[in-house]
Amino acid sequence: MTPDDRVYAYSAVLMGSPILLKLFEHNETLASNVFRLIKLQETKLTVNRQQSEVMSVNHAAGDHAVAVSKPVFDLIRRAKAVSVLENSSFNFTIGPLVKRWKIGFNGNSVPAATDLQALLKITDPHDVILDESSQSVFLHKAGMEIDLGAIAKGYIADVVRDFLREQQVTQALINLGGNVQTLGAGAEGAWAIGLKKPFSTPESLIGVINVTNKSVVTSGIYERYFELNGQRYHHILDPKTGYPLDNELLSVTIISDDSIDGDIYTTLLYGMGVEKSLRYLENFPHIEAIFVTKDQQIIFSSQRQFTFMPLDPDYHITG
Ligand code: ADP
Ligand code: MG
Ligand code: MG
Q: Whose CA is nearest to atom 16 of ligand 1?
C-alpha cells in the first residue's frame, strides 16, 4: 500500500470552481456535510445571484441600511478595514467595476475610460457605513456594490477547517478552486501543494509547496482573463485606475494559518509589487509570500512555515 492509498478524495463544483476535499477515511456523510456547508456560506456571500445577504445590502445602496447576520457583518468589517488602508489595492466595493468588466464571464469588453471614471466614484470603501449595534450595513451612494469575491473562498475554507476540527478530524485538505486549507499533515508528512506554471497546462508546475496545518492561497493574472487585440485583461483590478493591476508579477502565493489572510494578502501585496511587499511583510512574521515574476524569478519573503521544491528549470529562485 502506498501512503496515498489512505487518502479519500471527494469533489464537487461549487462557487463556479472545482472543489476538492481529501480525508483519511472513507466518509461520504462527512464529505456531503462539508459540501452543504460550503453551499450555505455561498448563498450568504455571493454576488453572482440576485439574492444573498450581500445582495440585499447592494440592492439597498443609496437608500437604506440592511441588517445582516453576525458572520457576514464581521466579514464585511474585516474587508472594510483592509480596503481603507492607505494605498490599499484591496477594495471590497469594487463591485461596479467587476460587473462592468465581466472578466471570467461571458460578454467581456474593455470599458470606455469615461465609464471607468464614473464607476470609480462609487467605489470608495469609506462610503460603507457599518453600525455595530444593529449589525447593519449601509452603502451611502446609489449604485455601490460590495464584492467579496477576493475573500469569500478564504473565509469559507476557514469555516470548513473549523467544522472538520469540531468533527474530530485531524488530517484533511480542502481546495476551494485555488484556496487550499489543510488540517494536520498529509500522507507523507506534509501536504504537497502544486504551484501552477502560468499560462500553461493545469498539470504543469513551477514547484511544490509542502505545509502542515497551513493555508496556501495563490492569486495569479493567469487564472481568469480575456484577450483583445493582443492585450491581456485579468481579473484583479486596480482600485485607483479601474484597469487590471499591472506590474512585474505573475502571481502571489501566501502561506498562513488562516486562508482569509491568504486571500487578503494576495490581493494587497499584488498591488505593492515585490520590493514593497518584502518590506511590508517584515512586520507580519506569520504571513509568508512566494512571488513569481514575469521575468521568471521565484522570490520568498521568508521560509519558516513551508518548504519548496522547484520543478521547472525556466524559473529561478532569487534572493
Ligand atoms: P480568484 O477569484 O482567482 O480566487 P482572487 O482571490 O484574487 O482570485 O479574487 C478575485 C476577485 O476579487 C475578482 O473576481 C473580483 O470579484 C474581486 N476583485 C477584483 N479586484 C479586486 C480588488 N482590487 N480588491 C478586492 N476584490 C477584487
Ligand atoms: Mg481567491
Ligand atoms: Mg485574493
A: 149
Among the bound ligands, the one closest to the CA of 265: 3
With a 6 A CB cut-off, is 178 part of the ligand 1 pocket?
Answer: yes
Superfamily holding 53-139: ApbE-like superfamily (1.10.3980.10)
Q: What is the chain's Cα-based Rg?
A: 20
Q: In the block, which residue shows the cell 512555515? A: 305
Closest atom, ligand 1, to C-alpha of 103: 14
176 forms bridges with which residues in the sheet? 19, 179
pLDDT digits (tens, 9 = 90+) for 217-274: 999 888 888 888 888 888 899 999 999 999 999 999 999 999 999 999 999 999 999 9
**Domain 190-319: CATH superfamily, name plus number:** ApbE-like domains (3.10.520.10)
Strand partners, 205: 196
227 grid coordinates: 484577450
Which residue has the least CA distance to atom 26 on ligand 1?
Answer: 150
